[in-house]
What does this fold into?
Amino acid sequence: MDQKVSGDQKVSGVTVHKMGAWSPGPGCHGGCGVEVHVKDGKVVKVEGMDDHPWYQGRACPRVLAMTQYMYHPDRLKWPQKRVGKRGEDKWERISWDEAFDICEKRMKEIAQKYGPESIIFTQGTGRDVGGMISFLAYAYGSPNWTMLGLSGHSCFTPQLASGYVMQGDFTFPDAAQFLPDRYDDPEWKAPEIAISWGSTLNRGCVDHYWSGHWFQDLMKRGTKLIVIDPRCTWEATRAALWLQPRPGTDGALALAFLNVVTTEGLVDKAFIDKWCSGYDKLAERVKEFTPEWAEKISWVPKEKIIQCARLYAKAKPAAIEIGRPVEGNPEGNQVIMNIHRLIAITGNLDIPGGNVICRSAYGVTTYPYSTEEVIQLYGEPLYRKLSEKRIGADKYPLVKNFRAWAQEDVAIEQMETGKPYPIKGLWIQANNFLANQAQDTRRHYEASKNMDFVCVVDTFMTPTAQLLADIVLPAASFPEKDSIYCIGGPLNVIHKVVQVEECKSDWEINFTLAKRLNPAAVPWGSVREMLTERMKPSGYTFEQMVDKVWDLAPKGNTCGSRPYRRYEKGELRKDGKKGFRTPTGKVELFCTSYEDWNLDPLPYYKEITPQGPITTPELFKQYPLIMMTGRRSPVLFHSEHRQIPWLRECDPDPLVELNPETAKEQGITSGDWVWIEGTMGRFKRKAKVTPIIHRQMIMVPHAWWLPETEGKSPNSYGIWDLNCNQTIPMGHQDSAGFGGGPISGMLCKVYKA
Amino acid sequence: MSRKGLLIDYDQCSGCFSCVVACKQEHKYPEGKWGIKVEEKVFVDPRRPNNSLRIDYVPFPTEFCDLCTARAKRGERPACVKHCQAWCMYSGTLSELTTLMEKMPRAVLYSR
It folds into this structure.
């Protein structure tokens, strides 16, 4: 495939605009290219873009439903201010000027009275909002950028953080996503073995540098798949091997894999000798974690553990994709570090068909993924200054020293106690945390409902906006805005081709407000001007990129975003030296950062789930089922899309999946409403009886609310009836701060409603 | 002109629903009206090695599938075929498709 220069084309009154698709709209973590068909100032169709490397013409159902999303009657169309009490659903339309005036005044008041750190900036995942919200937080002077209620920040950040401390970078399986010609590039090889660890192939959630269906592309090219998942998935039924662990025990499996690989000598000695440090200490430490030991903990037969370790280690190349639930294990950050150790000692790091180091094309970023990127965007002095006051920084070295996220379990405590400083405001952007990620939902509601100031920026009215907001601002979807996609393989342009009502882009909103709050932090005249500066490393201006559509660093480029074996070429470190971006320049199997921070620098296992067959066997008799949550839907992205008819009819109901034996015992049949009860309370779901669920587990898809029901409190679109997170506590984070949280580890029972 | 059809490799459909929504967008079909639909089928077969479970997603065209005649006139593939994330759908003449079908373990051919 040629790397075509491809601008807009006009045929019979329809102009076709090529661009990257990101949020708002499809949700997800973006990456693909689409063709937006516009007629008479309206988007009439969105199709996949054939000459874009990410998806090569394919498209997900959410982007194909964009016209229903953009022109939905319930879409937020203009700024509104609350005129009743919180939760009363009484709103008044206001102008943008008035909205900005109110936000500026209230935010300045809080900054003067309490300091800017007293406002928390909370975002949802996926949406490109990470760049804009951190931009606003930094301009305002708050170190508290976060995803409120997501215990241990267990969604991708542990992958970034664990990769950062081990080898200075995170990785994904190599599906040629960094090569413009993709699978046709002669440098690329298909992995012989690919492990899908805790993720669903057809999920409506492309993961930054990875799309689930690429597993299928790989399998068609000879890759054999291993699936590790407590729940049987489509790909588990097509895999060479399926391991079905008890939720929360991936750490035991990872340790047993390390044990097999080191004791049997199935390692890449040359790579270890040259590029790793601490191998002997690692091998010594993992001796105790035998497959027999792991079988008792994980419920996976030891033969399968050994088989999996051997299949992976004897294949070359081989790759591992790490799903979100792996981060939610107890000591989740450490679990992922152990998977990185496995990748490194088998010599699969940054080689064709192995796990490739992921950096954004040309190093262009608006949404920082590493400490270096935060500094690149906002300068070291500001980063250091803000890091001092960041929530959780005094407790957790990773929170202080890695990237820039406030720690959520500490944040909720601080919101309640006001110590060491009070939290007085919330800036909530692309985030519906009371329906979506906030665990112990009531607690988050109680702690948020008396804030001095709350602004919500979103595309639809949500339970969170109804219950908390003073001001609600309408965000533009992707064809209504100028932006760039720079958190995955290609650098994609997104550019405004239509206007819908009075909606403004998240960039426009935050840029305008940041300029009012701190003009010095916003030296640019327009968003496009700022984006052009951000894109400097690529050599393109924003306008040039509109014609170019997408780009990847070409062969021979040394910016660090082009694989392979960059450690041999000195492309990973700022000082240009060979090796990895770690203190020693090696893959630190013995982790010196952890040692410096008084954390265990070597692998360990702790059975510290708050509840479970091992930690609370008595309780397990009373509540005999392990509740997993959060399996992805192919058509809905987290709490989004419940109001989009074409999508909702493919996945209409808030379900619970349970095993036929469990159902029989309780007289439950598919379609019955049932209660799911744990020690913290109960919620309701519609039963789907299916053998894909283990006899001692259930699966509850998360983030359900019913936009078709009343938004006024107490119904609040049904969240208090449906939200599974009400039964999941905060406060079980990894000892490094990132990782953990029993999103799939609480005990429950199920009975008919 | 030779008769056209739609070939679906049932072994490879992973249930992404792109065909369903692509079809609805193309034909502007409202809620409740499908040109193609996808069903999940789960079977337990203890004789299978490794995993006794089998999950199949089964896409089936309905009477409202017109093989995207309008797109064909413009030289475009049917909306479902173009957007299928698993790349398990094919369009063409029946003779082309039956040739392709020879190599597939389980496939269904649709024509009208």
